[in-house]
Specification:
By secondary structure, the chain is mainly alpha-helical. The protein is built from 2 helices and no strands. The longest helix has 59 residues.
Length: 100
C-alpha cells in the first residue's frame, strides 16, 4: 500500500469525506421519504373529503326519493355542499370546481 494512506491527515480527510458522502445520501433518502409521505397524506385527505361529499349527495338523493325534498332544492343544496369545503391551507379546492 502507498505510504500516504498511513499518514494521519489523509485518514482524517478520508473520514471527513466519508461523513459528507453519508450525510448527503441520508439527506437525499429522508427528503425522498418526506415527499412521498406528503403526497400520501394529501391523497388520504382528498379521499376523505370525497367520501364526505359522496355521503352528503347520497343523503340528499335519499331525501328526494322519500319525497322530503324536491329535485331542484336537493340540487341547490348539493351544489352548496360541494362548493363549501376547502382543501389545504390556501383555501383552494382542487376537487370541487363549479363551471357555469
Amino acid at each position: 500500500m502507498p505510504n500516504f494512506l498511513y499518514r494521519l491527515p489523509t485518514r482524517i480527510y478520508a473520514m471527513a469525506g466519508l461523513a459528507v458522502v453519508l450525510a448527503a445520501a441520508l439527506t437525499f433518502a429522508l427528503l425522498s421519504r418526506a415527499v412521498d409521505n406528503a403526497y400520501e397524506m394529501r391523497e388520504n385527505e382528498l379521499d376523505s373529503l370525497t367520501d364526505v361529499m359522496v355521503g352528503i349527495l347520497a343523503d340528499l338523493d335519499a331525501q328526494v326519493q322519500r319525497g322530503a325534498l324536491t329535485l331542484d332544492d336537493a340540487q341547490a343544496r348539493g351544489i352548496t355542499a360541494v362548493e363549501l369545503p376547502r382543501f389545504g391551507t390556501a383555501g383552494s379546492s382542487d376537487c370541487a370546481a363549479d363551471e357555469r
